[in-house]
Design goal:
Elements: H1 2-44, H2 47-56, H3 71-89, E1 138-143, H4 149-158, H5 165-175, E2 184-189, H6 194-201
């Protein structure tokens, strides 16, 4: 009876061991297949999909050839780059050029003597010379029928009797000679006053 129980126990134990071994083998195969499936899924994803997945996990996707740093190594690298940048941009001060002091001439030139002065010819006579009366100072001026005050003033300026035709027009309007101008030929002098000219051309000429 005891032997029978022993054999039954041994048989049961072997069966249970075989079952457990089989279950372990199946589980290991299942894990291997799962790992293969995961690698295959990752390989099928595009770079953009991988970047989105990494961002969702608060991670960053890097290339296989990109150099990775720890926080300490990163700080050391940036410090070194900053020191090198400052070393390349800083330039030593340039030497100031020495200003040359002008040398003193050995024999300075002496100023020329002021004893000799240029002689100025003084006029022999202090009496003013008598002005020469220009020839043909009297001009024969003709007023034609239908000539207005403006036309007469323009002709007077062209003949050289007056210098400013507009000023003569203003003087004629002040005297209201627009309708008083007489047709004829007048003997007028160059530079004659406006009042004298107005008095002559508003009266009938003597010839």
């Amino acid at each position: 009876m005891d032997k029978r129980s022993l054999w039954i126990g041994l048989g049961s134990g072997m069966i249970v061991g075989a079952v457990l071994l089989q279950l372990a083998t199946v589980g290991q195969n299942a894990l291997s297949d799962s790992a293969l499936d995961t690698d295959q899924v990752v390989a099928d994803l595009t770079k953009e999909q991988l970047e989105v997945a990494a961002k969702n996990l608060d991670m960053r996707l890097v290339d296989s050839d990109e150099e990775l740093f720890t926080e300490t190594e990163w700080v050391q690298k940036k410090t070194q780059e900053s020191s090198e940048l400052q070393g390349t941009t800083a330039e030593p001060p340039k030497d100031t050029e020495t200003v040359e002091t002008p040398s003193t001439p050995a024999n300075p030139e002496k100023p020329t003597s002021t004893d000799k002065q240029t002689q100025v010819n003084q006029p022999t006579s202090t009496e003013p010379s008598t002005p020469v009366t220009p020839k043909d100072a009297t001009v024969s001026f003709k007023v034609r029928s239908g000539n207005s005050l403006a036309m007469v003033a323009e002709n007077l300026e062209k003949s050289g009797i007056v210098d400013d035709a507009e000023a003569f027009i203003q003087a004629g309007r002040a005297e209201r000679i627009n309708t008083k101008i007489q047709v004829g030929t007048y003997a007028l002098e160059k530079g004659e006053s406006f009042k004298s000219i107005i008095a002559k051309i508003t009266k009938e000429p003597s010839r």
